[in-house]
Design brief:
This protein has 558 residues and is α+β, with helices and mostly antiparallel strands. It has 23 helices and 15 strands.
């Protein structure tokens, strides 16, 4: 591995046919993807409304019937003839950018498409019971009118409960509540042998409860979850604060927002770094309708289709200085949906323009799954080689180093900053705080949790815009090695270049593999590394994974 401090020497890059296909793909997006996406969104919305009209008793009955269908399907599998078990969902439906190549090999499908209902919102217990395909837009639409919300609401409407629990989920409130999976009270799982169990942190299946997050559905099928609710108010009072200086200065300004010196921690925190010398930090506090509508206060309904894209609106603080406004809470939750953070600028270069927002902004955003389904192999590989969509989960005190690494290796802007607690748990799960972190008493840390930050890297590197060579695979390899060396993590939705040994250097396998053995997942569900691995899976690999196959856990230090 090359020295991570040594910048690569970059030559000039020659354009190919696929460059022009990507450059003019907006034509296809406008005339096909956007109209079809709107029809899909309408169909989903009508389905959600139909589900909401049913009684809780009827929804629960349908849920139990669907669970039994999953059990029956699992029992039909012949381990000697059929492949490993996975869902019947098409590879392109997942929101993540990772290739779902494991489904191209022999496998045994189980259909979970019916699990998309909110089963119960219990305002007394402050818990929402939902099925795994319920998405963030659906749940916030149901809870916000009640002045309730999930403790962590991931920003994009299409992100599902199942993906956020089995994988990774974060929001601007994660500095208080942790990752999405940390807000889960109970999970209902169908195991490999067809047993249906409810796991909580303190019942007989507590090991499974702690094993499910980050497992990518490789311990069993998640069929429902009970998730913590919190009381909210109608508006978010949002303060935009510009920060200028070096990347280390910006990181310190961000850390001061996460853990303010006066001790008053806001309800929401988010940062965006626009250049190597400029960033904007946003802190939000829930506010009542009465407060928001007081004379002199500015209300900004950012969710309207004609409004400027949120990241561009926040950027105006660099010119006009710190300012405060009130945003309707649900619109604030989904502030990045319409422009897909800033990826919308690449999909539709003029999508942020005034005329487009007013005439066609109501069609936004394009359905990510539809973009993936229609991009073809050449365009998909182009994005892997010339584009970056990665998240770096790093300790708060290392954010400055992470920003400098990204600038040196990728030069991608804007960058997204979102803090989250990483808790000390009764067992050592796949992700865990640095050993002995509590002894250092660093900014943002407590005795029971270390403060981490998601550094979101989503865009085309400046090297590509300048016509220089950029090796996407090599850049990701260097990023992954930096993460391993700095006790940091890479969410598994992203494209990875990790081999198995390095995968288990980044993540801890001990508890996960104990759960795999105890609950019969070995030989039925593929391992999380096998599921995350880049590239097509061969029949030989499938057979080896079925044979049991547990690879040694490479948890030793680098």
């Amino acid at each position: 591995m090359a020295d991570l401090q040594t910048p690569l020497v970059r030559g000039k890059r020659k354009k190919k046919l696929v460059d022009y296909l990507v450059q003019f793909r907006w034509i296809f997006v406008i005339f096909f993807v956007l109209p079809v996406s709107s029809l899909i969104y309408l169909n989903i919305y009508l389905g959600d409304m139909w589900s909401a009209m049913k009684s809780e008793k009827k929804r629960q009955k349908e849920h139990e019937e669907n669970v039994q269908k999953v059990v029956k399907r699992l029992k039909q599998r012949n381990p000697k003839k059929d492949g490993l078990v996975c869902t019947a969902r098409k590879p392109w439906i997942a929101v993540g950018m990772r290739n779902v190549d494991y489904k191209r090999a022999r496998h045994f499908e189980v259909d979970l498409s019916a699990f998309r209902h909110i089963l119960e919102i219990d305002a007394d217990r402050m818990v929402a019971k939902v099925e795994p395909l319920v998405n963030m837009g659906q749940i916030s639409r149901a809870t916000c009118p009640m002045n309730l919300s999930l403790a962590v609401v991931a920003e994009l409407d299409d992100l599902t409960v199942g993906g956020l629990i089995n994988g990774y989920g974060i929001e601007g409130s994660s500095h208080i509540y942790g990752l999405f999976s940390d807000t889960v009270v109970a999970v209902e799982v169908v195991l490999a042998d067809g047993r249906v169990v409810r796991a909580t942190k303190d019942n007989e299946y507590s090991d499974l409860f702690y094993g499910v997050p980050w497992s990518q559905g490789t311990l069993g099928f998640l069929v429902s979850a009970e998730i913590k609710l919190i009381p909210i108010k109608e508006y978010m009072r949002l303060t935009y604060t510009p920060v200028k200086g070096s990347l280390k200065d910006i990181a310190q300004g961000y850390a001061d927002a996460v853990a303010p010196r006066d001790g008053e921690v806001p309800d929401f925190i988010e940062g965006m770094v626009y250049t190597e010398t400029e960033g904007v930090m946003m802190t939000g506090v829930y506010a009542s309708k009465e407060e928001a509508k007081k004379k002199g206060n500015k209300i900004n309904s950012v969710g309207w289709w004609f409004k400027p894209w949120f990241y561009q609106h926040a950027q105006t603080a660099l010119q006009k200085g710190e300012f405060v406004e009130y945003i309707p809470t649900r619109q604030y939750y989904h502030r990045h949906t319409r422009c897909l953070y800033w990826e919308g600028k690449l999909i539709l270069p003029f999508g942020d323009q005034f005329w487009f927002r007013y005439l066609l902004g109501w069609l936004m955003p394009p359905k990510v799954s539809l973009l993936k389904a229609t991009q073809g192999e050449a365009i998909r590989n182009y994005y892997h080689d010339n584009h970056v969509i990665q998240d770096m989960l790093v300790p708060l005190y290392k954010v400055g180093e992470a920003l400098e690494f990204v600038h040196r290796e990728m030069e991608v802007y804007p960058l997204w900053l979102c803090p989250h607690r990483l808790y000390k748990l009764p067992v050592k799960t796949m992700v865990y705080p640095e050993p002995g972190f509590e002894l250092h008493q660093r900014q943002g840390d407590t005795s029971y949790a270390q403060m981490f930050t998601d550094v979101g890297v989503y865009y085309t590197p400046a090297f590509i815009f300048r016509g220089e060579e950029f090796d996407g695979a090599e850049a990701v390899r260097r990023l992954e090695q930096w993460l391993i060396e700095n006790h940091s993590y890479q969410p598994q939705y992203a494209v990875t270049e990790l081999n198995e040994k390095d995968f288990w250097r980044m993540f801890d396998a001990s508890h996960y593999e104990l759960c795999r053995q105890k609950y019969g997942a070995v030989g039925t569900f593929m391992s999380v590394y096998y599921k995350s691995k880049k590239g097509r899976k061969t029949e030989k690999e499938v057979q080896e994974a079925e044979a049991a196959m547990l690879e040694p856990a490479y948890a030793e230090e680098a």
